[in-house]
């Protein structure tokens, strides 16, 4: 099944000069024994519930393991499962660590220990991409962006034993070259039962919208790529066969799966034929069309995660969230609810335009529209984004452990920090108290969303402003 080409065409991909697939395969065949890689998903040190309980399977690291495993031996450690990186790393040649901002300090400690033992240390992921100079102090090499597009160069240099400080692709590979992820790397873990039953899947990469607080444009530029529909559907059927049942629950990891409506709608039409269930992050820019919500429901969509962000039009304008139109909010919610689709709604607080009224407006919207799973966060300027550059002089600290969107970063212009946190805690307690849950969830299917509300009820009862400092 063919689809039209993306707006940004990525063609004639080739490795950098001096590298080739032929040379890589030649070097690989000359190995007396396969080099050993240790791939690490670090746990975060945040005080909030980020890496506790059930966690999602780390699709990006699984994809790395799938590529690396073609030429090298791979050991896969996910610290969120309770596993730990051994102190003695003598059994490995390469230590590769993925990192986002909230676990960067942990990733750096692992990298430093491996460097002291003379290992090749590779740091990748969002944070090393955004702050490669900082990350380079804790590793041999930084992978900027995705590993797939620089794999030939990286693997060749590992085999030669001569590493470059940064690996950054001049062009990005088409997603048609993406291998189907080998989930056995994660599923064979001792504590694999801690993984969510939702199977992560990827259909597209990138988001050209360019919100100024988002890291995606830095990693992928303005590119928007997608896999051929046949490959996505084949992967879904593979998991159906692997698990021996049709009703598999998939979670799309795409930044903006709906950016190309024709591709998205065709994918949903095909998914409707194979009987899966799914959820995804989605932009609301065309969810006000009833036919989109109808097709999403018919294709097995259980939940969509939507960044409402704010009920303040000035705030939406300031963060360049052009896809959000306040006048469409209630229509979008109604269209999804009419088709049996639950909503995970994201709301951010601490913008300069926020006032105490912002909290009341958000509470009223959530309760009136019966948003099933509201998620609240504090505005966090992440390094490498335009918003960070704008706010850097005002942020209270650069303690990466607290860059989890649940810690107080700066004082907004129209409210004191104390009032911000006081209202932030009050809103969460009000939304997740028993009576509010019953009002929002009355008549809804008895499923995992009810359970999440129950857990949030217990969690928010313990909250106080001090949690967020």
How would you sum up this structure, described in words?
The protein is of the alpha/beta class and 469 residues long. It folds into 2 domains: 21-168, Rossmann fold (3-Layer(aba) Sandwich); 197-468, tm_1862 like domain (pyruvate-formate lyase- activating enzyme, Alpha-Beta Horseshoe). Helices cover 36% and strands 14% of the residues. It has 18 helices and 14 strands. It has helices at residues 21-29, 59-68, 104-116, 126-130, 132-135, 151-160, 184-187, 216-220, 229-243, 261-271, 290-298, 313-318, 329-337, 356-369, 386-391, 417-431, 434-441, 448-461, and strands at 36-41, 73-78, 94-98, 120-124, 141-144, 166-168, 199-201, 204-205, 225-226, 249-252, 277-281, 301-309, 342-349, 373-378. Strands 2-1-3-4-5-6 form a 6-stranded parallel β-sheet, with helices on both faces. Strand 11 (277-281), helix 11 (290-298) and strand 12 (301-309) form a beta-alpha-beta unit. The longest helix is centred in the middle third of the chain and has 15 residues, at 229-243. The termini are far apart. 41% of the residues are buried.
């Amino acid at each position: 099944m063919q689809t039209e080409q993306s707006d940004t065409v990525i063609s004639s991909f080739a490795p950098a000069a001096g590298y080739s697939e032929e040379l890589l395969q030649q070097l690989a065949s000359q190995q007396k024994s396969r080099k050993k890689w240790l791939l690490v998903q670090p746990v975060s040190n945040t005080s909030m519930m980020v890496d506790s309980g059930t966690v999602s399977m780390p699709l990006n690291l699984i994809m790395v393991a799938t590529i690396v495993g073609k030429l090298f031996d791979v050991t896969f450690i996910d610290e969120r499962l309770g596993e730990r990186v051994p102190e003695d790393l003598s059994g490995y040649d390469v230590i590769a660590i993925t990192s986002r901002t909230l676990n960067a300090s942990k990733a750096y400690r692992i990298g430093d220990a491996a460097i002291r033992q003379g290992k090749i240390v590779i740091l990748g992921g969002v944070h090393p991409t955004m702050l490669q100079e900082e990350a380079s102090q804790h590793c041999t090499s930084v992978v900027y962006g995705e590993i797939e597009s620089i794999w030939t160069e990286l693997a060749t240099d590992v085999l030669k034993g001569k590493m470059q400080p940064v690996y950054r692709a001049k062009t990005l590979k088409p997603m048609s070259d993406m291998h189907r992820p080998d989930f056995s790397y994660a599923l064979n873990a001792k504590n694999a039962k801690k993984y969510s039953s939702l199977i992560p899947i990827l259909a597209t990469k990138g988001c050209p919208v360019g919100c100024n607080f988002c890291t995606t444009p830095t990693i992928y530029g303005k590119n928007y790529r997608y896999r051929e529909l046949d490959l996505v559907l084949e992967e879904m059927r593979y998991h159906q066969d692997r698990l021996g049942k049709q009703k598999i629950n998939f979670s799309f990891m795409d930044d903006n799966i709906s950016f190309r409506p024709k591709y998205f709608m065709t994918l949903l039409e095909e998914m409707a034929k194979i009987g899966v269930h799914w959820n995804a992050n989605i932009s609301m820019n065309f969810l006000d069309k009833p036919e989109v919500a109808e097709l999403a429901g018919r294709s097995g969509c259980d939940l969509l995660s939507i960044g409402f962000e704010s009920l303040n039009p000035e705030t939406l304008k300031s963060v360049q969230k052009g896809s959000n139109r306040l006048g469409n909010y209630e229509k979008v919610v109604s269209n999804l609810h009419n088709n049996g689709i639950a909503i995970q709604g994201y709301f951010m607080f601490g913008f300069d335009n926020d006032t105490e009224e912002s909290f009341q407006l958000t509470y009223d919207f959530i309760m009136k529209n019966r948003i099933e799973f509201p998620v609240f966060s504090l505005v966090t300027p992440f390094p490498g984004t335009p918003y960070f550059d704008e706010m850097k002089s005002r942020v209270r600290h650069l303690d990466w452990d607290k860059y989890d969107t649940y810690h107080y970063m700066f004082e907004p212009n129209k409210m004191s920090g104390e009032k911000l946190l006081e209202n932030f805690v009050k809103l969460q307690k009000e939304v997740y108290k028993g009576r509010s849950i019953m009002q929002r969830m009355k008549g809804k299917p008895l499923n995992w969303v009810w359970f999440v509300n129950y857990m949030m009820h217990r969690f928010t009862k313990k909250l106080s402003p001090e949690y967020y400092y």
